[in-house]
Specification:
heterodimer; A: 236 residues; mainly alpha; B: 268 residues; alpha+beta; Fusion Protein Consisting Of Minor Coat Protein, Glycine Rich Linker, Tola, And A His Tag, Chain: A, Domain 2; 9 helices; 32% helix; flat; transmembrane (chain B); Cell envelope biogenesis protein TolA (chain B); transmembrane helix (chain B); membrane (chain B)
Amino acid sequence: MSGMSIAGAHVAATSSALSPIALFLQADIVVKSVMIGLLLASIWTWAIIFSSGLKMGRTLKASKAFEAEFWKSEDIDKVYDGPGRQDTPSAKLFTAGVGEWRRSVRITPVDREGTRARLATAMSAATSAEIDKLSDRLNVLATIGSVAPFVGLFGTVWGIMRSFTDIAASQNTSLGVVAPGIAEALFATAIGLFAAIPAVIAYNRLLHRVGQIENQLHRFGDSLHLTLSRELERVK
Amino acid sequence: MERAEKAGLGVAFVGHVVLLAIMSLNLMSARPKPPLADAMDVMLVDKVALQSSSPEKAVEPPQQMEAPDVGKPEEATPPPEPTPAPTPPKPEPKPVATPKPAPKPAKPTPAPPKAEAAKPAPEKPAAKAKPKATNLGDDFLKGIPASKSPGKGAVARAAVISPIQANGLAALIASQVKPCYTVPTGGAGATSIVTQVRLRLKPDGGIAVTPEVTANAGVNDSNAAYLRQMNEAAVRALQRCAPYKLPPELYEGGWEDIKFNFRPNQMN
């Protein structure tokens, strides 16, 4: 009646066990699979971020170099046989345009209007093929960015459900019983956000760069079209 | 899968492993651990103080003030200062000279301590008023009572016992009543009836007046039928276990007349 002791010892003791691996090992099988899935999604996201980022940077630089070389050179045929073989979007666009021009010019009499239309079609087709190739993996980023939080939330809800069941089973509502379950459940949401946030940021950034490359390709294609149609006037 | 993608996958995988390792290897737990909460004592007090009281009830009256009342400044200041100045040298050697030679020859060593320890100087010479070597007036001893007060207590005496101690008393009584109490057979909820009993005790702990029931708590429809039975059992137990061993210094104003809440729930 006179004195009781309230000890905070066991509550503090659990806080040391909150390392990620411990949390993962404590978790339920469903939460575990959610965590593994989200971790793989995160790895995949970063793989795409690294590879696409590198690829786009390299592509942009190579395309610019090719364009500079093209405008410097006197002879289109020389460019076509030399640097035109490169695997850059600008070179592909150039090859498509010049190849179509050569094929159209071979037919006599030359149909100038038809050739211009075919040149435009060939070059825009090459452009969109290149853009498709560049933005191939971006849909994965978009999916991970929008779905990962929900998957993590599912893991959290499941884990919290389980810890409530534990409370009911042990008839004990002390923090020591509830805390580990809720911590491990929240860890699932944390991983979900950990995967989703970089994915969304990278998606927006890479989309912006794809747009940049596309605009540049269009500009190059337009000037190439102008040059080729001017050349077409000289063909007899 | 292209080569760039393979490289990216490798970099991402290594990065995740490194991150996981960093998080696991004590970078997370490196933050200072919160200090363990000290276990604290919780006291369940069912009484609330409406009056302030000293925490401990002093048995003795407080010590009396010893500082003398200084007389009116008009009397004290003007005459003593000029007149004593020339006179002191004369009387002083006399008292000093006379007592010293007398005790010295009689007992060489024990005499001086006695003369010093007794220290009759302030009382006797002051009464004679001959050697006025100090500024102390004739009313110097006015504040000191003739008979020494027995009071030694440093704390002021409280009129009322503090609720904490009253609660402690209740706990003491409860622990002593416990063996004498047998739970009467009653329906469910009968033991939740709390009986407040007014106990008037003699200083030796015995019952002075038959305990009377002053109030009840915890009575509801289901256990109202057992009210009388429970009250009687409580009174009976209290009578049977007398005399009680309680701290005597808390008798007066404390357990000489105390209201004790008898809780059958806590008597098992």
